[in-house]
Fold these 4 entries.
Entry 1:
Amino acid sequence: MHLQQVNASVESLKSRIAHSEEQMKHYVIEAVRSTKEDRHLAINLESALLELMDAEKELKWLKYAVSSSQKENDQVQKKIDEIQTELVSERKTTFCKPYIYLVRDFP
């Protein structure tokens, strides 16, 4: 009877060991899966950071381009204003001169 109990205990322990081994396999598989997923996420994060850096560079360039265009536009507008002022001045001079001559012609 004592031998039967020992054999039963051994079988019970073998069963528990087999169950534990299956659990360990499952945990190892999950750990490998998680590691692969972490690597994938790390690669995605690195790619996203590189894209963000590129976008920031492009934004900086676009801001510079807008600023440069605005300065150029301001210079063009200033030149237009100068030309318009000059035209107004010339028109006044052109329209006033004949009038001045007409006034001089009459006593």
Entry 2:
Amino acid sequence: MEHQSHHYQECLLKVNGKVIDGIEKYINQVNIYKNINQLNRAEILINNPIDNNERKINSLYADMAIGDEIAISCKDINETVLFTGLLMGINHQYANGSAFVTLDVMDKAVLLKGKRNNRIFLEKGDDEILQEIGQENGIEVSFEGKATPLEQVLQYQTSDWNFMLQRAYNTAAFCINEEGAVKFIQAHSGKFDELEIELTDKTEYNLAATATQQIKSSVAYGWSADDQEMIESSAPETIAPTHPFLNDKICEVSGGEEYMVSSNQPHAVEQLELIAAAREQLRKLDQITGTITIPTEEALPIGQMVNFSGENHVIAGEMFLGGIEYEYTGNKWYTHLQIGLPEPSENLKLPESAPTFIGIVKTLEGDPLGQYRISVTLPAFQQDDFPVWARLSQQYASATAGSWILPEINDEVILTFLDGKMESPIIIGSVYNKVNTPPEDFVQEDTNFKKGWISPEKLKLILDDELKTITIETPAGNTIILDDEENAITIRDAHGNEGIFNEEGISLNSIKDINLNAEADINLTASGNIVNTASGDFSAEGMNINQKASSAFAAEGANAELKGSGQTVIKGGMVMIN
């Protein structure tokens, strides 16, 4: 397409589809801004001639109201419509005898900025997420490219517009707003549409090619929780402008041969590919930046390569059109083409650190990825039917070893997020509250003597720094007490049987029998005496019974009997019977 050198002289305004006759002579200036990743907007400055005696607003626009639809056109044969939007603000000014009205107009998609929202998306790709948000707001949203399904994506206290830009950045896509619709295009998904504009010796321009932050290729690394190692993926083929200003050294001189992106999140290889592509593509589109001013003939689409032609023209070549400003001033229209991205590509990420969240435990089993995650709902989202899966931080987690303490269902837990990204939640702990109170065994005091662990069924492990004791106890009352204060170990069961180990020795107390059974020998040895006492009978039985005394041997009873069924032998130095 060839652009002529003439400028249109008039600006036409329509309010709710109706032309305001005669207002064009009062229009002082119009600026229309259309940029990638921004909502289209316009500012209209109108002279406001008023009756100095009555100070009445000019009737030409006295009936304009917030929310009216405003259309701005070049008043040519075709009445080229450059912008249509909603009147969002009216500013009246008066100074030094002159009065003006400034109209702020935004594209209909401004509805996406209306409020901060909380949402949970499960098992959806970014294309589905973006389109779902558009449908909820009555805005047509399209997505050109590919998107991998994601297990869970969270939107928290973020406007739909900012959230959509964040999601687009993650898929190496940029956003174009036009006529109330929003289109997302993956820059690397295919060759850009091309537009041709002819340059003249009167074309005004301000362009720069810079090697700063340029890269030849990019690779993204992510953590694989399943494989316990970093995985990587390189960007697919990306697109760069073809221009005499550019050569292969633009990346070499900045040291940007390869750009590495690292993430702690458990990304799939397909996601890493998009992350790498995003960094690489956005930087390449920024290789040439600046502005070119041409006459206004028609509304031009942004987000495409433009071939600027012109024999021997110094700036002729291919460049990326990232934005347009239509300017009406001095009764003339100008089109300022924004070459490159409208802002540094790194700012398109719009980072927002995810806050720490309260969660309520929903289920402990059924993790579809088998990563030992648990399912929690997030009260802040008010979507109890949409639980998310979160990894659980343990004090000790190793191969076939570690601690295993899970919260209970309906417990209140605290979640944080890897890299501040809400797709990767981790439970870092549980908290008490007035509903889930601490066990009665624990009292919150400044002395803070007691520590411990008590299960829902009252299995207890209590450490008492004041008494210097460690107590293990079951619900029935079976206990083991390690006591440094008494220098003792006490084992006691629910029936009253106990064993005491202290400086006096070992005491075993039983409310009934004590039975010792061994598959082999039982040996009793004492450095002192061994005393066996029974209130009832004392019996000893064995295949053979051998008793031997180093000095005296005595056996005494009210009645005594020594009997053998075979030979009975009694020997001694002297045998005395009665």
Entry 3:
Amino acid sequence: MMYEKSHSTIAQILDAAQRLFVTNSYDDITMAAIACEAEVTKGAIYHHFKGKEELFLKMMLRYLDCLQALLQQAVDLPGSARQRLTQLTALYLDQSLEEQKVMQLVRRDANRFGKQTREQLVQAYQSALPNQIEAIIAEGIKTRQIVAEDARLLAWQFVAIVEVCLSQYARQQFQTPQEMATALTKLFFDGAGLSQED
């Protein structure tokens, strides 16, 4: 019972921190604000976390671990590289806007931390997204569905295409996450140019 209550309190604190960090800068968030948002005491937060940096790291690792498990479903699917990348992208885009904004915190805030925390964040980010895309692309290269280029570089190019389209404007151009995922994957595989015959 005590373990369940402790686990529930930690989840409550991490959920509150996530809501605050995606809408405010890291420096503007205080432990008191997190306590207020989580409806716990500051003492309860410090019972579970040494400070704001550790709380932020645990919040990010929780999200990135869940994202990795979610996107692994697409990596494990049968089908072409194109189909699997489309499914992976649809799974990512189907998350709430808050969850998608959590991913952006890696770039926004990682450099403010010391080497160990920064490396943990970057490694978790890479495991959750680019490495899984790279696995699909590498298999696509091996099966001649994708040109024989550097799979890691292609994975980062695909990530860039998706991230550019996370804006409100881009979202308004598509009815569903699946429609957007299909369009982004088409852009990656087919490019934006017209052939001379068109």
Entry 4:
Amino acid sequence: MDNESLMLSTSFEKAKYSLAAFALNFVTVSLRILPLKVLDHFSYGISAVLWSTNKRRRAITLKNLRSILALSDESSIRVGKRSFYSNILVIIESICMHRLLRRSYKSTRMDVSDEAQRLIHKCQSGEIPLTIAISSHYGVWEYVGAWLASVVSPTKTIVASKLPKNRVVADHLKNIRTEYGLHLFDKKEVTREVLNAHKGSLPPHLCMLLCDQHEGNGLKVPFLGKKCCTTNVPARLIHKYKLPALIGIARREKLGSYYISIDVLPLSGLELLYDSEAYKEITLRINTILSSYIREAPSQWIWMHRRWRECCGED
């Protein structure tokens, strides 16, 4: 390709990027000014279309609900539809997060333990260089991250995320999260960022990890009562570097009304365990707590993934 053709190709790619970015910004601004009831109806409509058309995800959802929660066909369909609706709402709520964080627009019940409040204060003051925060794709996970980011500021809050391959979408998501204090890092990069913060080469960090998805090279421990492959990254970081950890969720009671629960992950009784045993025990504790949250409102968790597929080969 000659220089002129290369320049034309580069200019075309830049124009495509700018046009796509403009379209995403236009949609974002439009959604942010709509009344909550309109957003609710919009989310319900989109979720109904996805439920009808995405047969593969619908089948996985129904299979998971029947086998894990032992629901009847009728109950599985009802919970499955609500789960699709909840997942669409999360996207809308993340775009409109400024409303949730402004007191005049939100109604949030807080349940933050005394121990968690002390740890949050130490994180905010910089007394602790690195704190882990654990949650799951349940309720409004964006909100629990944004709320923690607001209360630990100026401590930087980073989130391990699998970013979309589309650069325009990935950049847009990063920009939206940055507006409310969350800094997205690709999962491959977050460990390096965490270790640099732990060593003191970076300012204090709060690192948020969502720990409820399939991990092919993980540990096989129970989740919602059935063994599945779970990431061991949080357990390794916590145990190897003696890091404190928060664990919590933000659950939607209705659009515009929420419940946040934050506690400290219990880490006692690990002193006599080998490292591999400690990793498994910490992961089991994480899964047990996250499972208890999900059972309280199963329609607010993502059931459309093959969470319990065979993979890591452990008994």
